[in-house]
Known about the structure:
- The complex is a heterodimer of chains A (51) and B (146).
- Chain A has 1 helix and 2 strands.
- The longest helix of chain A is centred in the middle third of the chain and has 16 residues, at 26-41.
- Chain A has a two-stranded antiparallel sheet with strand order 1-2.
- Chain A is an alpha+beta fold and 51 residues long.
- By secondary structure, chain B is of the alpha+beta class.
- Chain B has one domain (9-144).
- In chain B, strands 1, 2, 3, 4, 5, 6, 7, 8 and 9 form a 9-stranded mixed β-sheet that branches.
- In chain B, strand 3 (26-38) and strand 4 form a beta hairpin.
- The longest helix of chain B has 18 residues, at 67-84.
- The A-B interface holds A 1, 10-17, 19, 21-23, 25-32, 34-36, 38-39, 42, 44-45, 48-50 and B 7-12, 14, 16-18, 31, 33, 35, 37-41, 43, 45, 47, 55-58, 76-77, 79-80, 83, 87, 89, 91, 93, 95, 119, 121, 123, 126-128, 139, 141, 143.
Amino acid sequence: MSVARKKKGEIKVTIVKDMRDYSEDPFFKKKAESAKEFLKKHPLPESSKKK
Amino acid sequence: MNLERYKLIVSQEQGQYEFLSEGPKGVIRKVIHYLPIGNSIYNLGFGDWDEVNQKINDKSRSNNGDREKILVTVADSVMHFMQLHPRAIVFSRGETPSKTRLYQMVIAREWKTISKLYKIKGFYLGKWEDFIPAKNYDAFTLEILQ
């Protein structure tokens, strides 16, 4: 565990290496799928698309 | 502005953040997850960790008397994530219209600061547009102002 140093405008956080993996949690997966569907139906404007 | 916030812990590789909400209902573990959903686009997911069922509780309204502190902490996580991923677009849509409105209230309240750092778009009546503080949007995106 390490504590990130706070410089001006930076957010102070504690960095950990052993956090539980939430990426397979049904809630987050469902939310991500729902977001994908939303953006498929309503694509972001060209100005927001990364090259 | 010196607002009250919780201490964030982060797993940078996983795009995950945790903090502990403390109030009359006890200590509640809150989890924020930025899951990639497209070309540099990440979905902002946020929920309470349910220790008994070992999963995120999506329907929870913890009512722990610390809503403002929680929102400031979530905003901190967004800023930290954007510092790590400056080309990212963060997409956010609340579980319910009231939660989406709540996010919007935070953006509107901090608009003077936010608008100098980020470009925010809102989805309104079927199209994306530049965020206007007084409108009720269905979804938002946020990216660093180039």
